[in-house]
Amino acid sequence: MIRSLLSRPFASYIVSQQKKWIQNSEKIQHQTLQKLVFQAKDTAFGKDHNFGDIKNYEDFKKNVSINDYEDLRPYIDRILKGEQDILWKGKPLYFAKTSGTTSGTKYIPITKESIPNHINSARDALLCYINETGNSQFLDKNLMFLSGSPVLEEKAGIPLGRLSGIVNHHVPSYLRTNQKPSFDTNCIEDWEQKLEKVIDETIHSDMSLISGIPPWVQMYFDKLHERTDGKNIKDIFPNFSLFIYGGVNFEPYRNKIYESIGKKIDSIETFPASEGFFAYQNSQHDNSLLLLLNSGIFFEFVPAEKFYDENPPRLSISEIELNKNYALILNSNAGLWGYSIGDKIKFVSKNP
Fold first, then answer.
1. Structure pTM?
2. How far apart are the first and last CA of the chain?
């Protein structure tokens, strides 16, 4: 009861702050670029790319090209050898380990300055929902966060793991008491074994929120179905009222997941990646996602059809057009510069 009551004024505050930056998004993005360049001017990357002389976005584009992981690998290799002040000041707090089709294993830096983007964005997605719907009672019941293992390795003295496992270490303490599955279960590496243990821990719990990548959640639902002689999820968890998903395209899973649940429930789509938390659905009346322009990332947009040109046009948020496909380019306080994540987006609104 206390969690749900306290969340409402906090949700109202967060949404009021959100409205302020939404109304000044172009100015905020300009300020973000200036701040990023200033903070990184004494790093190896900043010195190599004349950050001390960059005054505006046009200067930035002349000095920093569009990069992929292979382009930044020489700098990341230096961090892996123990050097500091390479892509960002100091050393990363973590490396998020991710697999790429062209670069094999990637080590994506997460810094002291960038970790709030991952943590607070997920929190704010929930608070937007609470503020709009008034539904906060789910916070007082059991919350499921299906994630990768929170067991971290070390690389050059820097903790290394899957992003969802890293984020698991930063779940607020007030949610720990009703978080499922347990830390020990989350640490199980083998997915089949882990799934069975998750079922053991949750099948008789009052689950109100379930969050995870759609294919994982569907496997969880299928196992529950088997264990309960074909019951729908709504009959196993009568108070299940909110589903949070992201990480992959939801459309191939949508019908099957709602069929498994057995009723329509509220859902929140999110757009997280190891490189940053970029957007979330901030209204139940609109399926589009709010791009997070006030979260330590300066975004650039390249028209998709011109991405492979020798010198493709690079646009800031003030220059984009509606209903066009753009390649998403990041510059962030994790030390990613001109970084193409390989995703395409399309704007359906400019206000917000």
1. 0.93
2. 33
Q: Tell me the C-alpha distance between 41 and 78, whole Å.
A: 17
**DSSP secondary structure code for residue 305 in this structure:** G
Q: What is the pLDDT of residues 304-335, one digit of tens each?
A: 999 999 999 999 999 999 999 999 999 999 99
Side-chain-facing half-sphere of 160: CA atoms under 13 Å: 14
Per residue in 24-82, pLDDT (tens digit) is 999 999 999 999 999 999 999 999 999 999 999 999 999 999 999 999 999 999 999 99
- Residue 278, token pair as written in the block: 């970029």
CA angle 120/123/126 to nearest 5° reads 150
Phi/psi at 68 (5° precision): -115, -175
What is the number of other CB atoms lying within 10 angstroms of the CB of residue 197?
A: 16
Q: What is the 3-state secondary structure (H, E, C) of 308-329?
A: CCCCCCCECHHHCCCCCEEEEE
Name the pairing type of β-strands 242-246 and 207-211. Answer: parallel
User: Which residues lie across from 36 on neighbouring strands?
Assistant: none
Residue 339, classified by CB atoms within 10 Å of its CB into exposed (0-12), middle (13-18) or buried (19+), is: buried
- Cα 322 to Cα 338: distance, rounded to the nearest angstrom: 22
Contact 209, 146 (CB under 8 A): no
Q: At 303, which helix (H) or strand (E)?
A: strand 297-303
Residue closest to 92 by CA, chosen among 352, 335, 342:
335
196, amino acid identity: E
- pLDDT for 85: 98
Q: 23 by DSSP, 3-state: which? A: helix
Contact 331, 33 (CB under 8 A): yes
Cα 10 to chain centroid, rounded: 21
Q: According to the model, what pLDDT value does residue 247 have? A: 85
- Model confidence pLDDT, tens digit, residues 214-234: 999 999 999 999 999 999 999
